[in-house]
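[step 3/7] fold_predict: job queued, chain A
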Amino acid sequence: MLPLSLRRLSQLSSTVLSNSYLASVATKSVNTNALKGICVPFLNCYACPGALFSCPVGALQHFSATHVFPFYIIAFIGLVGITVGRMACGWICPFGFLQDILYKIDSPKVKIPQLLTYLKYVILVLFVVLLPYLTGVCWFSQFCPAGTLTAGLPWAAWNPTDPLTDRPILPSGPGVLFFLSLVILCAFLVWFVVSKRPFCRVVCPLGAMFSLFNGVSVVRVEAYRCDGCDTCRSTCPMDLNVYLDQNSKECIKCLHCTRCEYVRMITPFTSPERIVAGEK
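[step 4/7] structure written:
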C-alpha cells in the first residue's frame, strides 16, 4: 500500500475531525453545542449526529428561508474565497474525498460535458436562495446526497432523539423524501465511479460560490508553458487542462498538476517556486 500523500492526509483528517462528536452514539441526539454556530468551508450537514460544525449551504438556506440577510455567511464565503478560492474543495471536503476515492475503482470512464458545469449556479440560485425564500423550506438540504449519507442514513438506522422532547425524531420511521434522497445518493455514488468529481463540477452550490473567487484569490495555480505532456489533464480530479484553463472556476487547487515542471503555485507570501503535492 502506498503512503498517503499530504492532500489525502488532509482530507482524511478533516473527514474524521469534522464528524467527531462521539457523544451522539451514547445520547442518540444531534450535537447542538456552541461549535454548531461555526461554519466550515465544506459540506458538513448540521443534521449529522456526529457533526461538530455547520454547513455554509445549510446556513445560507436557513437565512433565506427566515428572510434574514446572511451577513455572516457572505463574509465567511468571501474571506475563504478571496484567500484560497476553491482550494478547500480539494484539500478538506469529505464529500470531495469520497469522490476521489470512488473514481479510482476500475471501470469505464465518462467525461462530463462542459455545459453541465453551469448547472451548479442554477441550483445555487434556485434551490439554496430563491425557493427557500419563497417557501420557508431548505430545499437543497432535502435531497443533498452528502446530507443523506452523513445524516439521513444515521437517522434512519438509529433514529436520534429530539433534545427538546426526548422522543424519537422519526416516530413513524423514514418517509418518502428519505427514500427519494437515497435513490439520488445511490445514483451519485455510481456517477462518482465513472466520472471525475461530478457532484463538485455539476451540482455543488458551495463550489459554485467559491468558484467566483478563483480568478482573484491569493492562492493561484499558474502554467507558464506547455510542452504537450498532458500531465495536468491526466492527474487533475476536475479534468482540466491547466495551461488552457488558467485560474478556471473549476480548479480546486489540489496541486496535482504541479507534477509538471511548467506548473506552479503562486502566493504573495512565497517565491513562485514549483511546489509538488501530488500523490505517488
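[step 5/7] annotate
Residues 6-157+172-219 form one domain.
Residues 176-194 form the longest helix (19 residues).
exit 0
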